[in-house]
Write a structure and sequence with these properties.
This protein is an alpha/beta fold. It has one domain. 19% of the residues lie in helices and 23% in strands. The protein is built from four helices and nine strands. The strands form three sheets. Strands 1, 2, 4, 7 and 8 form a five-stranded mixed beta sheet that branches. A two-stranded antiparallel ribbon has the order 3-9. The longest helix is centred in the C-terminal third of the chain and has 10 residues. It is globular, with a radius of gyration of 16 Å. It starts with 7 loop residues before the first strand and ends in a 9-residue tail after the last strand.
Length: 177
């Protein structure tokens, strides 16, 4: 079961399908979940809602590879959890698992933090997160708040838009709409 938001989309980045990636982890009973690194998209300077988020928001936050992602928001993960190992959520990113099972990254590395994985890799799978979208959409988001009692404000917008370097990331633009 994948625990993601409506503004997040998986992308397989190798020749493997999502099903093949999950099957490769399935037999190992010590693995209870796969933690997938975010690829956070910026507004790209758009002020109004476009027809397609994937086609329009094609700039992303830099990974800071020289420091294992220390200065990047892309260290966050979201999880795909084996239902047989699910016990309860720790938070929206990681889960308490049964029978000593652990959450691993795409390379089998154990994720033992509250919501982060470093170094950031997306060699097999990525989770594109359209956190800000256009300025108009972000203003709507600020007004409605969120389920974590941690409403996003101008500080988050400024961090996403101006606080970190951006890179081109167009791989999701091939999808419709």
């Amino acid at each position: 079961m994948a625990f993601i938001d409506a503004d997040e989309f998986f992308e397989t980045t190798s020749k493997e399908t999502l099903s093949q990636i999950l099957r490769s982890l399935e037999k190992d009973q010590t693995i209870g979940a796969l933690g997938v690194n975010w690829q956070m998209h910026s507004s790209g300077g758009l002020l109004a809602r476009p027809k397609s988020a994937r086609k329009s928001f094609t700039t992303c936050i830099w990974d800071d590879p020289g420091h294992d992602g220390e200065n990047s928001n892309n260290t966050h993960v979201k999880s795909i959890v084996k239902t047989s190992k699910y016990e309860r959520p720790k938070n929206p990113h990681l889960y308490v698992l049964k029978d000593g099972a652990q959450t691993v990254g795409e390379k089998g590395d154990i994720i033992d933090s509250e919501a982060f994985r470093r170094p950031i890799t997306r060699d097999r799978i990525a989770l594109h997160h359209y956190a800000g979208k256009s300025r108009a959409e972000y203003e709507e988001k600020m007004l409605r708040g969120n389920a974590m009692n941690d409403p996003k404000g101008e500080l988050f917008w400024n961090s996403l838009e101006y606080g970190l370097p951006h890179v081109n990331c167009t791989s999701m633009a091939k999808w419709n709409p």
